[in-house]
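Re: folding output
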Amino acid sequence: MERIKDLSKITLQMHTVLLKMTEKKFSGLVLPDEGEESGKMKFKHGVVIAKGSNVTGIDIGDIVLEFPGGRIYDWKGDKYVMVRADAITIAVKPDNIELTE
């Protein structure tokens, strides 16, 4: 992945999207999760930066809040996740969310 110059210009499978992830920031002592939540990724949200040709209802720049799984990639110090668009359960337009750091 490091050889790719611009991830927004990649060609994806027809039903997939690529999300640039924002990780949750923790302060203080972090204890390992137990139970159902332990297998989930610890991200605040993802921004759609590329999508396959058959993806409808989700646009470049949309904010994805919830989706199961996906393949995680590291690219130039950031985390990206590739996921099937039909697996996304909550997504909003950028003007419909308050993002705080």
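--- second protein (sequence, then structure) ---
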Amino acid sequence: MAIQYPDKPWVDGQTYQYELADGTFIFMVYDEQKNTWNVSRKNTETYVTQQNLELVSTAVDAKFDMLRAAINGATDFNTLKDRLLAVLN
């Protein structure tokens, strides 16, 4: 099985997921400091593990950090809107 990666550039905490033909889901979170993707594999019958929760928590924390950075220094509504949309898309 070859792992599919999203297009670069990658950012810390970026998440990516895709489904294999057998119904298994691959869930990935990028760690910029280590320049690696943390990969977990699960099917629809798999219960949530602590590792999965930690990966999701890391991704959410990174997204909030990106949102805070987008808000800081915005001088007008249009700039703020553009920055927030860039993070959320």
